[in-house]
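Lab notes, practical 5.
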Amino acid sequence: MYQHILLPVDGHEGTEAAVEHAIDLANTYGASLHVLFAVEVRGLDLLEEPNLEKFREDLEAEGAAALEDAEVRAEDAGVTTVTTLVHDDPREAILTYADENDIDLIVLGQGREGLSRLILGSVTDRIVREASVPVLVVGNPEG
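Output from the prediction step:
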């Protein structure tokens, strides 16, 4: 049913359940797991110059750590992974990556807490509405 599953990660605890679901699904279907981290570049030019490069480096390091964590966990479960870090708006990056890489399913974490969890985040909302493939939104059981 699924050959290529996309798992966008953001390095936050709210995506933990999505990582587990994506790995389980990839393992069940023998699918490859594509793990994507998008470094949000919009608005970075508004930061003062001395802080801009440091902020970008911190985001890239956070992304690299999130990708490595998901990759290690997937490979420990016997799942083939492809990791990608891009500099783009997350909504655009996810939709473009899915279209360009024959993705069959997108697994998104929903880590919002309190009343805000009643409303999908803007990234999740857009992906659910615009993706050309099924989207599984995994809530944070501890949120």
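Observations recorded by the TA: Residues 114-120 have pLDDT under 50 and may be disordered. The helical segments are 16-29, 49-76, 90-100, 122-130.
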